[in-house]
Amino acid sequence: MSTRSRRSRSRSSRLRAAALLVCSLAALPAAGHESRYDKLWSLAELYTGRSGSLVESVRLAGRLQIDQASLHHDAEEFSDFSLRRFRLGTEIFFRNDIVLSVEADFDWDNGHPAYNELTDAYVGWQPSKAVNLRAGKHSAPFTLDGMTSSTRLLTIDRSNLANNIWFTDEYMPGISVAGDIDKWTYHFGVYSSGDRNRGFGDSNGGEFWLGTAGYDFGDRLGTKQALLRLNLVSNEPDPRNGFTQPLEKIASLTFELDTGRWGLGTDVSSARGYLGHSDLSAFMVMPRFDLSDSVQLVARYTRVRSDASNGVRFARYESEIVEGRGDDYRELYVGLNYYLNGHKLKIQSGAQYADMDDRARDGGAYAGWAWTMGFRVSW
């Protein structure tokens, strides 16, 4: 049994309260009783001002995510029960469409909530759907999973495409503007790539530019959504870049189809490395089918390849068993989601088979099964 597994047993009592909270929420009535959930989630609304007030409303924001994961690779096994994410913050809405958002991530491994890092910390202005301006520390979205909040993922984790090509720190200091204009959608921003820390980070490295443009063909195809998006990233090479991966140029073409009962997401991405990091290419396809209003079946196939040896890293839990890297990663995931209050309260489970080729034969070869179950609560 892995060292991580032994540590997780020693801290399991500290997670019991969080697990009981999630299980208690899960025991509430499922679909068809939205009013009960609405009443519970309305408690996050701390203040509502009068008409014309400077402060229109104040609400709590956050998420609580718990995972149970088991992996099997050759004769090795790994098991972990963990508080995956606990974030808490507030959103203050002012008149004239201005918002102040501050959220932090906390770590319970030490036995009590301890500040880990600042996530969202920005001032925003959104006068319409066409303009959403943000300045401060906020998300830099590209690739299909990178553009999806962890609260709205259809799978337990983001794909290994996002793990290798997206900038997984997610929240970075910068300024951006995004919006929807008729069937078009866009996002343009410039962000700091410098050293990361528990606050805003240090602007001592380079910077990167992110541009996204998309068009929804849903009306033409007779579907709810058929959104095609192109993401382009230009990252200034600098050895002090801590927020980003050592990738200089990134292109990602994504497509999301939603017919109502079933849907499909795809992502084709490539990246050019710098400072010795290999160039990468990746592909991901993710179909889903709604068995009922509250039960959903989802599958995913991912492949990530590097031109040079040791250019592909493993996903979160696989890296607990295999310390090295490889050059050709393949994964098949099948999962079942149970929604009690949409994405705000759900139980997810998934089985996965993944393997990695390692041309260098220096510890990156892998072939193994995994099963993960997760509780997701957000408000």
Helix and strand topology:
Layout: H1 3-26, H2 34-41, E1 45-48, E2 55-73, E3 76-94, E4 98-107, E5 114-128, E6 131-139, H3 160-165, E7 171-181, E8 184-192, E9 207-216, H4 218-221, E10 225-235, E11 247-258, E12 262-273, E13 280-290, E14 295-306, E15 328-339, E16 345-357, E17 366-378
Antiparallel strand pairs: 1-2, 2-3, 2-17, 3-4, 4-5, 5-6, 6-7, 7-8, 8-9, 9-10, 10-11, 11-12, 12-13, 13-14, 14-15, 15-16, 16-17
List keywords for this structure.
379 residues, mainly beta, Porin, 16-stranded antiparallel barrel, disordered N terminus
Description:
The chain has 379 residues and is mostly beta strands. It has a single domain (3-378), classed as Porin, CATH 2.40.160. The protein is built from four helices and 17 strands. It has a 16-stranded antiparallel beta barrel. A hairpin with a 5-residue loop joins β15 (328-339) and β16. The longest helix is centred in the N-terminal third of the chain and has 24 residues, at 3-26. The two termini are 36 Å apart. The model is unreliable at 1-11 (pLDDT under 50).
**What is the CATH architecture term?**
Beta Barrel
Strands of the biggest beta sheet: in what spatial order?
2-3-4-5-6-7-8-9-10-11-12-13-14-15-16-17
**Helix share, percent:** 10-25%
Low-confidence stretches: 1-11
Structural class: mainly beta
Could you give the order of the helices and strands? HHEEEEEEHEEEHEEEEEEEE
How much β-strand is present in the residues? over 45%
Round the mean pLDDT to the nearest integer and report it. 89
Q: How many domains make up the coordinates?
A: 1
Number of helices: 4
What is the assigned CATH homologous superfamily?
Porin
- CATH fold name: Porin
**Highest-level CATH class:** Mainly Beta
Q: C-alpha Rg, in Å? A: 21 Å
For the sheet with most strands, the description reads: 16 strands, antiparallel, barrel
Large-scale geometry:
globular
Please give the alpha-carbon distance between the first and last residues. 36 Å
The counted number of beta strands is 17
